Amino acid sequence: MLRRILYISRAAEGITEQVLRQIIATAQLKNRRRDLTGVLAVGKGLFAQVLEGSQGDVAEILERIRGDSRHADLRLVSDSITGTRFFDRWSMELLVEEDAADLAHAVREGGAEAGALIDHLRSQLAQDPLYWSPAMGTLALAT
Predict the structure, then answer these.
(1) φ/ψ of residue 21, rounded to 5
(2) What is the pTM of this model?
(3) Across 96-110, average pLDDT
(4) Do 49 and 43 meet the contact criterion of CB atoms below 8 Å apart?
(5) Phi/psi of residue 113, each to 5°?
(6) Measured on CA atoms in the order 136, 41, 70, 63, is the torsion positive or negative?
(7) pLDDT per residue as tens digits for the range 27-74
(8) Which CATH number fits domain 2-139: 3.40.50.2020, 3.30.70.100, 1.20.140.150, 1.25.40.10?
């Protein structure tokens, strides 16, 4: 069985594109080794991340993220046990997109369900971007 979580946190001041690239590159390497999958959506001062993998690995990564100074006010908004992955092709994908940011804010404030945000992020998987696309606002840093 797999654990899937969605958390939303406030991004610390000074998070630059270079910092995001470093976060994603590091996560992709480490997540491949642990068979973790997911997506990190960034926008409007928030991080929204889905992580999928073994219960122990997801718990360990979540605790590390809680202690990461690049995050503040982390809220776990979805936590489930599942037999299937939603993000099986992404060890970690970065999504910078207005709709995802708006949904993350709505979920955080109680105006939308976490499932709506997860579904939106899943819809991006179907498009499977490989390169920067201004129309989609996505950036895949490694294949």
Answers:
(1) -60, -40
(2) 0.85
(3) 92
(4) no
(5) -85, 145
(6) negative
(7) 999 999 999 999 999 988 999 999 999 999 999 999 999 999 999 999
(8) 3.30.70.100
